[in-house]
Design a protein that fits this description.
- With about 270 residues, the protein is α/β, with parallel strands linked by helices.
- It folds into 2 domains: about 1-170, HUPs (Rossmann fold, 3-Layer(aba) Sandwich); about 180-270, Pantoate-beta-alanine ligase, C-terminal domain (Pantoate--beta-alanine Ligase, Chain: A,domain 2).
- The chain has 9 helices and 9 strands.
- Helix 6 (about 120-135) crosses helix 7 (about 145-160) and helix 8 packs antiparallel against helix 9.
- The longest helix has 22 residues, at about 190-210.
- The N and C termini lie far apart (about 40 Å).
- Bound molecules: adenosine monophosphate.
- Adenosine monophosphate binds near residues 26, 34, 141, 142 and 178.
Length: about 270
């Protein structure tokens, strides 16, 4: 495995990868969710590339950029064990006063975008930069960040980028909690509270299996399970992120965001 820390080192290492490259961009503090993306990248391509970069432009003022977990040594070991061929860990990939990619108005203003102003501009900008540097044939993203996955897919289509976006299932702890680097912020008791997110989605799924299709009824049931957490949103949308009043199998995503103490968590379920 080559560990490239500068763009020059990356370019040199990339030239040696002659074949198809699968790429998983991450912010590090790697967990089994990240590793599932890496495994797929490895399996479906000649080479697997991973980036670890806590991207400053996707964090808002007062968010957790400074304290975001950084675990460089452990991450390098995990990537090596997973058979990663190229690991890109730059200090920065920005220079001053650069153009940025703007998320489409709807994507930037709903759900995560409504709460985290400019978040998706930062995400799309860094992903565009990383795609141009790594030049992958396929890029792997988790359904856990459903709105991000949707916007990246849109960006790739809009800019005619020749990269296949592969969506990967959410990896969960045995209790149901979706793995996230931010789970490290949770105390023991908060971790128990955090289980309410996945429990509420499992409850929704149960109701849908019993033929409940009214979005409003599902939202109410989810809100009940989430109590007493502070809810940022519960949304039921189609694959284009348009709110829908009735659930249609194969076309629906249920998204939730809630705060457990000071930690903001998101989760979702694709119906
Ligand atoms: P992050 O390091 O949080 O920016 O995530 C990097 C990539 O890993 C993104 O595509 C995420 O959607 C994906 N990811 C994060 N958590 C999970 C999870 N629990 N299961 C599957 N993919 C995940």
């Amino acid at each position: 495995m080559v560990v490239a820390r500068t763009i020059e080192e990356l370019n040199e290492a990339r030239r040696d990868l002659r074949g198809e490259v699968g790429f998983a961009p991450t912010m590090g503090a790697l967990h089994a969710g990240h590793l599932s993306l890496i495994e797929r990248a490895k399996k479906e391509n000649d080479f697997a590339a991973v980036s670890i970069y806590v991207n400053p432009t996707q964090f808002g003022a007062g968010e957790d950029f400074e304290r975001y977990p950084r675990k460089e040594e452990a991450d390098i070991a995990l990537c090596r064990a997973a058979g990663v061929d190229l690991l890109f860990m730059p200090k920065t990939i920005y220079s001053e006063d650069e153009p940025i990619v703007r998320a489409p108005l709807i994507g930037a203003s709903i759900l995560e975008g409504a709460i985290r102003a400019n978040h998706f501009d930062g995400v799309l900008t860094v992903v565009m930069k990383l795609f141009n540097l790594i030049k992958p044939q396929r890029a792997y993203f988790g359904k856990k960040d459903a709105q991000q996955l949707w916007l990246i897919t849109k960006m790739v289509r809009s800019f005619f980028m020749d990269i296949a976006i592969v969506s990967c299932e959410t990896t969960r702890e045995s209790g149901g909690l979706a793995l996230s680097s931010r789970n490290a912020y949770l105390s023991g008791n908060e971790k128990k509270e955090a289980l309410k997110l996945s429990e509420s989605l499992f409850e929704a799924s149960k109701l849908i299996k019993r033929s409940e299709i009214r979005s409003l009824a599902i939202v109410q049931a989810i809100a009940e399970v989430l109590k007493p957490l502070a809810i940022d949103y519960i949304a039921i949308v189609d694959r284009d992120f348009k709110p829908i009043e009735t659930i249609k199998k194969g076309e629906t995503i249920i998204l939730i965001a809630a705060r457990v103490g000071a930690t903001r968590l998101i989760d979702n379920m694709w119906i």
